[in-house]
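Hi R.,

Here's the chain you asked about this morning:
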Amino acid sequence: MLDEPRPLEGSFIAFYVNGVKQGEAFREILEGSYFPCLSTFTLPDQQAPVAVRCHFGPELRFQPLQDTAVTCKPWADAARRL
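And the predicted structure, written out as tokens:
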């Protein structure tokens, strides 16, 4: 039987736009592997298309301006470990 995943003390997921922190979405993340994903939503009468642009690495274009104690790494680094 597998052990239940444990929360990693001090862990969090935060979002940044051009290096500016938008806030923390989750704290005390359970141990394990996480992968980025996104979805879009439009209203039935919306005419304009939805567009999303993401940059997951291998090099970060904008280093976070806040939380200098936090080391940020691109998602591409995690993919290399798999």
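Strands lie at 12-17, 20-27.

Let me know if you need anything else.
M.
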